[in-house]
Write a structure and sequence with these properties.
A hairpin with a 3-residue loop joins strand 2 and strand 3. The strands form two sheets. The protein has a four-stranded antiparallel sheet with strand order 1-2-3-4, with no helix packed on it. A two-stranded antiparallel sheet has the order 5-6. Helices cover 20% and strands 33% of the residues. The protein contains one helix and six strands; from the N terminus they run αββββββ. It is α+β, with helices and mostly antiparallel strands and 97 residues long.
Length: 97
């Protein structure tokens, strides 16, 4: 019985951190919905860009190494998220041809 309890507690201890590292998927779209940016956060942070369903940039990892050797982008967790919709466009100050 003690072996069963020890095995059960060991399996719970191993599976809980694995569930905590479950990848999260985030997506942003352009106002007209043609361009999509997808960000996946798991053991590494990756992003991809598609336009009208055609992949322009496949899943590419992104990271930043800070002074002291600390690296952002590996094994990160998302602390909070917020969602909002913006209907706006940017007009250039100088006229373009």
């Amino acid at each position: 019985m003690r072996r069963l309890a020890a095995l059960l507690s060991l399996s719970v201890a191993v599976t809980v951190p694995a569930g905590a590292q479950r990848p999260h998927h985030y997506q942003a779209q352009s106002p007209e919905g043609a361009t999509t940016l997808a960000v996946d956060v798991g053991d590494r942070v990756t992003y991809s860009i598609a336009h009208r369903g055609r992949v322009l940039l496949g899943a590419s990892s992104i990271s930043l190494t800070l002074g002291g050797g600390r690296m952002l982008g590996r094994g990160e967790t998302v602390r909070s998220t917020s969602t909002r919709s913006i209907r706006d466009s940017v007009r250039p100050v100088a006229p373009t041809k």
